Design the sequence.
């Protein structure tokens, strides 16, 4: 990969542990290029008065073929789950090859400059 | 069409037909301006012939893109450079924008970005030359 400044907006990394599947990024993205699937699980904690319901992330995908790298998703995420990384060398060789799923997005995390 | 050498990969000489259709084309100029790509003499077989479509393709212009692709002698490859030519990008909902240049010509490399960096152009050229 040809070197670029570390603050370059090359790709967006996802921290799937921090993501609460709140869908705010999905709804704010001007290109509609984020897709999320999630489900709710009931959690009963000892001593609690009633069970809690938590959202569990099943799928987080970004279509880099569509993304305009505006950073709105990074800005609006209330849970600090999205980060800019300078990695830019990920061309695809087939249509749809730029749709990247949770694990691939999480794999960019170590390349995020400061967190 | 011009012949370029990649500054960081001395063995690679590419014939590039640059179809600059919108803002992404500026990054092609930036790659030249910064010396990442340098013009080379047109002697002998190139490592690859690449049509670089950078920018917004509209339905009106699509036939010209096809003509440019057909005019390029084989062996050749096409690069879609940037969100607009990849999928329509920010204009995904526009009536007049082609939703991906791959509806018109075969694409061998889709480079993400709006615009992609000049470095991404270089990396994609090197990859296309290696697989040619
Ligand atoms: S950077 Fe902009 S276009 Fe890309 S996923 Fe985030 S909000 Fe959508
Ligand atoms: S805004 Fe943040 S926490 Fe909410 S779904 Fe998007 S990435 Fe996850
Ligand atoms: S992808 Fe972005 S920078 Fe490139 S031509 Fe389209 S709008 Fe312009």
Sequence:
């Amino acid at each position: 990969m040809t070197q670029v400044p570390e603050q370059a907006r090359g790709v967006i990394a996802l921290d799937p542990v921090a993501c609460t599947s709140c869908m705010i990024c999905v709804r704010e993205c001007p290109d509609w290029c984020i897709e999320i699937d999630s489900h709710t699980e009931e959690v009963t904690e000892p001593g609690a008065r009633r069970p809690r319901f938590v959202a569990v992330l099943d799928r987080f995908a970004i279509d880099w073929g569509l993304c305009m790298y505006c950073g709105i998703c990074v800005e609006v995420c209330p849970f600090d789950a999205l980060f800019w990384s300078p990695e830019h060398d990920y061309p695809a060789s087939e249509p749809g090859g730029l749709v990247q799923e949770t694990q691939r997005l999480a794999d960019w995390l170590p390349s995020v400059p400061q967190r | 069409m011009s012949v370029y050498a990649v500054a960081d990969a001395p063995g690679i000489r590419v014939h590039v037909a640059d179809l600059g259709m919108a803002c992404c084309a500026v990054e092609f100029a930036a790659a030249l301006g910064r010396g990442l790509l340098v013009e080379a003499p047109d002697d002998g077989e190139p490592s690859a012939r690449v049509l670089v479509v950078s920018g917004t393709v509209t339905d009106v212009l699509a036939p010209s893109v096809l003509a440019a692709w057909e005019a390029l002698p084989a062996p050749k490859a096409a690069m879609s450079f940037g969100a607009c030519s990849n999928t329509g990008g920010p204009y995904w909902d526009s009536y007049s924008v082609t939703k991906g240049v791959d509806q018109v010509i075969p694409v061998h490399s889709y480079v993400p970005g709006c615009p992609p960096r000049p470095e991404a152009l270089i990396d994609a050229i090197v990859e296309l030359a290696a697989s040619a």
Q: What stands out?
A: Chain A is about 15% helix and 30% strand. Chain A touches chain B at residues 1-4, 8, 10-11, 30-32, 63-70, 88-95, 97-98 (CB under 8 Å). Residues 102-107 of chain A form the longest helix (6 residues).
